C-alpha cells in the first residue's frame, strides 16, 4: 500500500499590524484567519511579532529615544493565558485551521520574539522563542533556548518555524532539517528599513533566505511578511532622516516548494492580503532524492551538530531528599507549555 501524503492549502499573511494595539491586532488576526479558512486554507502563517507589530523604533534612533514607545509596546505584547490569547485559540478551533502566530511574547517584565503554533482544535502545538534576537533587537527582547529548535508531528506533516535572521544561522537551520521538517513557517517583519543603504536587510537577500531554506531542507516554506502602514510612518518617523530610514510597504510574503519554486503570484509590496498555495508533501521525496542534508547527503564522519535542547529555565526549584518544597515556583518551561 502506498503512503498517503498530506495535501492541503497553506496561507501566508502580508498585512500591516495594528501597531501598538493588541486588542485591535487580535481582531484583525481573527478576520484574516476566517478569510484564509473560507478560501480553503488549513494552515496560516503570520509575520514576525505581528502582535503588536515589529518595534521599528529601535532602528531609527538611539535606545533613549525609543524608550518613549517601550511601555506601550510592552503592555500590548501578548501574554499566554489571557483573554486575547483565548480569542486566537478559539478562532483556530472555530475555523478548523492551524495558526502560526508571530508575536511579541510578554512574560513578567521580559519580552521575547515568539511563534505560537495553534492546532485546528484550538490547542497549543508549541510556543517557541527566537533563539537570538538580531542586532538592536537585543535592546528589547530576551533569548530562547535549544528546546525552541523543535519540529512537531501534526496532521499536516512535521511542522516547524523560525523567525527572520534565524534563517541565516546555518546551525539552527541544520538542527531543523535533521528533524525531518516538512512544513516550515518562516516569519519576517517587513523589508522596509534602510532600503538602498543596507542591502542585506532588503527583499533580495531575505526572500532568497526563505527560498534557499526550502531547497536546503527539502521542505515547503510558508514565509509571511508584514507591511509598514502610513500610520506607522506618521507615528515613528518624526523627521526627514527617519522617513528616509523606514519606508511604507515592504511586504514580500512568499510560499516556496521543496525545489525552490515560488508557488503563487506575488502581491505588490504595499498591498495587504494573503497568498495561497496547494501543498502536496509527496513532493518532498523527489527533492530529497537529490540532496537530503541530514541523511544520505551528509557526512557524519566529518561533521556533526551538538544540539542542547534543555529548556533554559531561569529558576529551577529543588530541595534536599525528603524535604518538601513549599510555595513552589512554577518553572518557565511549564508555564510556556500551558495555554
Written overview of the protein:
This protein has 339 residues and is of the alpha/beta class. The protein has one domain (7-304): Carbon-nitrogen hydrolase (Nitrilase/N-carbamoyl-D-aminoacid amidohydrolase). 27% of the residues lie in helices and 20% in strands. The protein is built from 9 helices and 11 strands. It has helices at residues 22-38, 63-75, 83-95, 170-177, 203-217, 230-236, 240-245, 283-290, 332-337; strands at residues 7-14, 41-45, 98-107, 110-118, 124-129, 152-154, 157-163, 183-187, 220-223, 254-256, 273-280. Strands 5-4-3-2-1-11 form a 6-stranded mixed β-sheet. Helix 1 runs parallel beside helix 3. The longest helix is centred in the N-terminal third of the chain and has 17 residues, at 22-38. It is globular and about 65 Å long. The mean pLDDT is 94.
Set down the secondary structure blueprint:
Layout lengths: L6 E8 L7 H17 L2 E5 L17 H13 L7 H13 L2 E10 L2 E9 L5 E6 L22 E3 L2 E7 L6 H8 L5 E5 L15 H15 L2 E4 L6 H7 L3 H6 L8 E3 L16 E8 L2 H8 L41 H6 L2
Parallel strand pairs: 1-2, 2-3, 7-8, 8-9
Antiparallel strand pairs: 1-11, 3-4, 4-5, 6-7, 9-10
Helix pairs in contact: 1-3
The tally of helices reads: 9
> What general form does the structure show?
globular
Kindly report the CATH topology: Nitrilase/N-carbamoyl-D-aminoacid amidohydrolase
Total number of beta strands: 11
- Helix content class: 25-40%
Q: How would you write the strand order of the largest sheet?
A: 5-4-3-2-1-11
The biggest beta sheet reads: 6 strands, mixed
| Class by SSE composition | alpha/beta
Oligomer kind: single chain
Would you identify the regions where 5 or more consecutive residues have pLDDT less than 50?
Answer: none
Question: What series of H and E elements makes up the topology?
Answer: EHEHHEEEEEHEHEHHEEHH
Share in β-strands: 15-25%
What's the structural domain tally?
1
Tell me the span between the first and last alpha carbons.
Answer: 39 Å
